[in-house]
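Consider the tokenized backbone below.
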């Protein structure tokens, strides 16, 4: 372990870190590495605005970028494990690259072998990092890293960009503190920057009021190095990539369905061993070209290699209930996950009431669902989605404002919203608050609206979907 940095011994006197944009350069994988190292792979071009215009029928087959949730986890578990983890299909979006830099700062060796191919050599634990852990805009990255790091005797400062600094961290740190970790805050309690003192944890039993995969995962990752058996009960089953990947790295994780929900149990003290991880296509990203296929007349769009883990496919079920012509071919397994090629054909859609119990399986997809619902006959009711208000932005407020600006009838509620569809006038500039999903959803909307739709601050699309614009243009979309 590296010695503790000076000035870490008093929570009260912790200074606000100066800047949070340290970018450790990643090791290159020898002369064969065909692309720039990670520190150079930030948003290369970032136009102020992007505009989507009514487009002719979209046609073609594309591959979804790697799944963001699994990519974060692959880096983190690879760093916690002993030995080599080789990852293929990793999402090289800004959020995930920030997690890669973080695990390198915690002592792992991270090398890029080629497009989407990375090698992480873990030391079976984290070291105290030299600088601030900058998680950029990534809520998943920071919360999972906090959980992972809390189990080791390290000190670390976590920070992020302006949007991440507004997001609640107490939902994770409160439980990590119950386990024995300590968090000190430079400013308001529960908001980044946060200073962790980790180690000597004890297991807890946590019952969630709202299902959150991030909270579950942070507790389980901490529980791996805690004394005793940690359990998390979730009322609805949230994405289970952490459980699946922990098993792939050699840990035992028990999942039991009870009357009150699902209980996940993990005994502390289990060692992880590096392994191969294959990351399938991200259903949240695939949703954008597929939505465009549903709403642009005459379209037939296929996205290949989409992960079909049923805890992630709530949107596809919802679309099918709305009358979407959505078909899945070539079902197979890849990297321990169900995968298939999904085709969307232009469809006459109708509004439906989305079951609230489905929220966890499509929480990131409500913005693109709302854009799709703007072209459905009748009202689509989306309730029980208050969590949308604490994502990269207040996604209920921004979708309501954006759709209204485009002439769509929308009603806002504290924990949800209703969209009444038909034809969409468009002809507006939409404020995205730097939220990638707000930007992509309105650009898709613009492809079938009467007048063009412009979004501001589209640079953040690179956090989850680098190459989005090029992929959409390749299908025939008029975005520029
Ligand atoms: C994620 C869980 C979800 C989701 C996020 C990714 C994950 O957040 O919104 O984009 O990878 O665990 P919550 O767990 O807060 O619902």
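A designed sequence for it:
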């Amino acid at each position: 372990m590296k010695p503790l940095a000076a000035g870490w011994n008093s929570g009260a006197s912790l200074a606000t870190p100066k800047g949070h944009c340290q970018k450790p350069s990643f090791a290159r994988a020898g002369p064969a590495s065909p692309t720039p190292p990670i520190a150079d792979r930030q948003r290369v071009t970032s136009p102020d605005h992007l505009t989507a215009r009514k487009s002719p029928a979209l046609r073609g087959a594309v591959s979804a970028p790697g799944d963001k949730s699994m990519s974060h986890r692959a880096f983190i578990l690879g760093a916690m494990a002993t030995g080599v983890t080789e990852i293929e299909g990793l999402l090289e979006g800004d959020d995930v690259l920030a997690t890669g830099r973080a695990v390198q700062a915690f002592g792992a060796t991270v090398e890029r072998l080629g497009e989407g191919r990375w090698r992480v050599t873990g030391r079976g634990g984290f070291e105290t990092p030299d600088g601030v852990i900058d998680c950029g805009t990534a809520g998943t990255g920071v919360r999972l890293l906090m959980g992972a790091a809390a189990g080791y005797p390290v000190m670390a400062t976590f920070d992020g960009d302006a949007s991440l600094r507004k997001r609640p961290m107490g939902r994770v740190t409160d439980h990590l503190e119950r386990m024995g970790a300590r968090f000190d805050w430079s400013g308001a309690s529960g908001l980044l920057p946060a200073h962790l003192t980790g180690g000597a944890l004890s297991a807890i039993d946590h019952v969630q009021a709202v299902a959150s995969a991030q909270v579950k995962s942070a507790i389980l990752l901490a529980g791996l190095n805690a004394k005793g058996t940690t359990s998390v009960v979730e009322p609805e089953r949230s994405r289970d990539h952490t459980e699946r990947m922990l098993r792939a790295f050699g840990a035992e994780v028990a999942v039991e369905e009870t009357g009150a929900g699902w209980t996940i149990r993990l005994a502390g003290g289990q060692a992880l061993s590096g392994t191969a991880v294959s990351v399938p296509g991200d259903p949240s990203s695939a949703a954008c070209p597929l939505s465009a296929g549903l709403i642009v007349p005459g379209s037939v769009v296929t996205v290949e290699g989409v992960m079909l883990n049923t805890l992630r496919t709530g949107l596809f079920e919802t679309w099918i209930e709305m009358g979407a012509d959505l078909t899945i071919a070539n079902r197979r397994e890849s990297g321990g996950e169900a995968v298939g090629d999904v085709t969307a054909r232009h469809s006459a859609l109708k509004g439906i009431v989305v079951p609230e119990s489905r929220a966890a399986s499509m929480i990131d997809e409500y913005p693109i669902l709302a854009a799709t619902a703007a072209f459905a006959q009748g009202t689509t009711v989306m309730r029980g989605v208050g969590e949308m208000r604490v994502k990269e932005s207040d996604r209920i407020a921004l979708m309501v404002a954006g759709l209204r600006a485009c002439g769509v009838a929308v009603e806002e509620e504290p924990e949800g919203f209703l969209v009444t569809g038909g034809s969409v006038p468009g002809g507006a500039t939409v404020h995205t608050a730097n939220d990638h999903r707000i930007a992509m959803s309105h650009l898709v909307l613009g492809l079938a609206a009467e007048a063009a739709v412009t979004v501001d601050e589209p640079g953040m699309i690179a956090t989850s979907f680098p190459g989005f614009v090029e992929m959409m243009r390749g299908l025939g979309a008029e975005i520029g």
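The radius of gyration is 22 Å.
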